[in-house]
Design a protein that fits this description.
466 residues; alpha/beta; transmembrane helix; 14 helices; flavoprotein; transmembrane; membrane; NADH:ubiquinone reductase (non-electrogenic); six-stranded mixed beta sheet; four-stranded parallel beta sheet; disordered C terminus
Amino acid sequence: MAEAPYRPAGNRHHVVIIGAGFGGLFAARELADADVDITLINRTNYHLFAPLLYQVATGLLSSGEIATSVRQILAGQDNVSVVRGDVTDVNVEGQTVTTNEGAFTRTYAYDSLVVAAGAGQSYFGNDQFAEFAPGLKTVDNALEIRARLVSAFERAELAETEEERNELLTFVIVGAGPTGVELAGQVAEMAHRSFKGQFKNFVPSQAKIVLIDGMPQVLPPFGKRLGKKAQRELERKGVTVVLNALVSNVDAGSVTYKDTNSGEETTLRAATKIWSAGVQASPLGKQIAEQVGVEAERNGKVPVNADLTVGDKDNLFIIGDMMNRNRLPGVAQVAIQSGEYVGRIIKEQVEHDVAPAARDEFEYFDKGSMAIVSRYNAVVKMGKVEVAGFLGWMMWLAVHVSFLVGVRNRLVSMYTWTNNALTPNRYNLATTLQQQHGRNALDKLRANVDGAEDTFEEVRDTNGEN
């Protein structure tokens, strides 16, 4: 006989929230004093401030400054239970969610479901690129990229030929959105400033950083003026910007791209590749959309109603990076505001019996976008207001400090940024072989679970050093 789905003791309205990113966390917080029980399910045990992953990848911050225990954040909220696990199934008609954590499986019954599982990296149908060009969506990604970056410089010290050294010191970043621009700027900073004088057999500033994008400008959402300013600053820092170029192949030692105007193909020899182009919403979105009878977009986002429900299900909400509502961008503010909104209307329904038909529509207030280009230089777009340079950098610092969770993380980050502004030092450059090769090693072992005989070193060798 099948075990009955789990519900908290008592007879209160049960809200299940999938995902502890900005959307899920702010929805749970909005329900802190509501007459409900909350089960918050997340595949990791931490809340991640993803916009700063690139600073972990480039040795400025440690992962602890941007990844905080979910249980610690919600420790004072009595009506929430935190569950670590992967959601493997959502049964819309049965109103259940099934999770798996190792060998442990449990099914939860819900009265309201908030799906805030976020998005991962998209390779636009070329998932084979991932082996050689990691994305930057998780702490594991950031640590792997940091290990690859540092290893490239370390190995260049031992290179026996200029050709080998040039390949090791060529860094290709695909995607000129905020993440790609910020990464390119920081890698240039590492090469020209942080590593200056630390190597005997070569000059780190000879590193070649290439930023590739298929669009005609960097930072398209910021507009042409700010995009041009960001591009000029990157080029001043030594970054080669290649626009109107679509990547057609990535392998262990090279990247090939095609010029969209001339059709000409170019192959760059590069040991280190990083992918920051495109996002793909959690596959849970498509699973839910099929059951409800709506069509998800190619990137996995699900069309939602004015109250962020899906189809005719007035107790099923999709928020943040997973939703498609008026083409809202996949940024933290959209997730925060949609999470707070859903928490509020669930509370109104439970405590004041507000019918779904009487719900106010979700309205997004655009607080602007910003990206740091280099030390003392950032671009900010807030409506019609556009700011670049030192003032933009100060605004970026203020906003990002305010979003970090916990006094310690704010103080440590402020100290780190101040120190980096005044000195070339980076204090989080320690790396391990496990960080550098673990993802691909694990994938290969999973593919050969029955008789996996490859040792970690053998998998490393077959993957190539980078």
